[in-house]
Design a protein that fits this description.
The protein is of the alpha+beta class. The chain has helices at residues 11-14, 50-67, 85-90, 92-99; strands spanning 2-6, 20-24, 29-35, 75-82, 105-110, 121-128. It has a single domain, classed as 2-Layer Sandwich (60s Ribosomal Protein L30, Chain: A). The protein contains 4 helices and 6 strands, in the order βαββαβααββ. The longest helix has 18 residues, at 50-67. It is globular, with a radius of gyration of 14 Å. The N and C termini lie close together (6 Å).
Amino acid sequence: MERTDVNPWEWSIAFGFSQAVQVSHGERVLFCAGQTASGPDGAPLPLTDMAEQVRMAFANLRTVLESADMTMADVVRLTVYTTDVDEFLAASGSSAEALAPNLPAMTLLGVTRLAFPEFKVEIEATAVR
């Protein structure tokens, strides 16, 4: 697979994402459902801190990717849903840690609530290898 990050403006790089990701010669595409701070049974974990929830959502995403023989480096697109955009942005270092040095195309959406009221963030991904 050949991957080219497209960033006509430099500001998005500072926030840890690319404006677009161009992929050619990819053999497999994986569309991942939204991952949250849930345990193996799908129930919410007792995590109230946004940064902890972000770390757990990314840990769950890594588990899904590994199950498909992929890694975070294969992620080309993320959609992040959060019940508190400001709190998510304040905890965005957790996203940068999980993604580094990968800069996928990303969209951040503020929503009223997620599947369980305890969830503050849900992260879905598209990966290509």
